[in-house]
């Protein structure tokens, strides 16, 4: 019985092996599927050489063109004035910004002026007797001498004798001592040199001010300047008076300025040259960050494309007979996002957007807008 079962299993195994072998042979003879060619759709553009302006992009912060840092040259108590000495306070030209208590010093000035008056009065009898021809002008000087006003200039001495006589009495020395004291007395009051606004206040009314102490900052808010650094290659092109377009960071506001000054030296570290752009606008504030676009020069027979379309080998992709190819390109100027190229023949079809994994010989199909295809079908 066992031999019969083993014989039957052996026959079945042989039959199964035969059918499996037949299937393997049949499958081996089937043709392999042909992979379909992938045609990638690309955006293209046709080269048309024109005159491309070179725009230099730079940025910086605004600073007031007229700026004064206020320092004290005298010592005393800060007395209150017509306006509070606070940031944001506006002053007209000539208005008092800071008034330091000068009562004690004023008294010493008045004392010196009185001494000068007395010295001149003491020589008047001698002048009447010895110099009758100059007596009247000195008498007129005394008559116009007012202790509450600025000391008038001494009469002009017309002879050596008169000069020796007046100088010998110490009158000239006393006069210049008084003028020196009056000059220092004027430093107890700081007036606005121009109409503007106080941007920084480091002292308050009633505080003690010391000599050499910084008191604040005062600016003219009507005119601002922005300092920008430009490549040295444009040193001979950038000129004062050229118009400049300025924008804020949000690209919502545009201002027009002009190049007011160009530094005559090049920074040895950065190899850049400094230019100053003047701009006026009621909406501008000191410290604002702006971006500037300066028109440096124009390149004839050139095109401008995205920087990422230019390879590291200074080549660009072109489309020829539905295949990608590469040609050399001469880069003239680079900006943050663009590059200016020359020596690209007119009519050349180039890529408008980069293609991932692009290579020479790649099969492509230029993208055709739907509206254009519909019009051509009609």
Q: What's the layout of helices and strands?
A:
Blueprint: H1 2-28, E1 40-42, E2 44-46, E3 50-64, E4 67-71, E5 76-79, E6 90-91, E7 96-100, H2 103-130, H3 135-143, H4 160-168, H5 171-185, E8 189-191, E9 196-201, E10 208-209, E11 214-219, E12 224-231, E13 243-248, E14 254-266, E15 272-279, E16 289-306, E17 315-320, E18 323-328, E19 330-334, E20 338-342, E21 349-351, E22 364-366, H6 370-377
Parallel strand pairs: 1-22
Antiparallel strand pairs: 2-21, 3-12, 3-16, 4-11, 5-7, 5-10, 6-9, 7-8, 9-11, 12-15, 13-14, 13-16, 14-15, 16-20, 17-18, 19-20
Domain Multidrug resistance protein MdtA-like barrel-sandwich hybrid: 68-215
Pfam families: BSH_RND
Protein name: Multidrug efflux pump subunit AcrA (Membrane-fusion protein)
What does this structure look like?
The structure is a single chain. This protein is of the alpha+beta class and 378 residues long. The chain folds into 4 domains: 42-52 and 300-377, Beta Barrel (conserved putative lor/sdh protein from methanococcus maripaludis s2 fold), CATH 2.40.420; 55-64 and 222-297, Elongation Factor Tu (Ef-tu), domain 3; 69-95 and 192-219, OB fold (Dihydrolipoamide Acetyltransferase, E2P) (Beta Barrel); 104-186, no CATH class. It has helices at residues 2-28, 103-130, 135-143, 160-168, 171-185, 370-377, and strands at 40-42, 44-46, 50-64, 67-71, 76-79, 90-91, 96-100, 189-191, 196-201, 208-209, 214-219, 224-231, 243-248, 254-266, 272-279, 289-306, 315-320, 323-328, 330-334, 338-342, 349-351, 364-366. The protein has a 6-stranded antiparallel beta barrel with strand order 3-12-15-14-13-16. The longest helix has 28 residues, at 103-130. The chain is elongated.
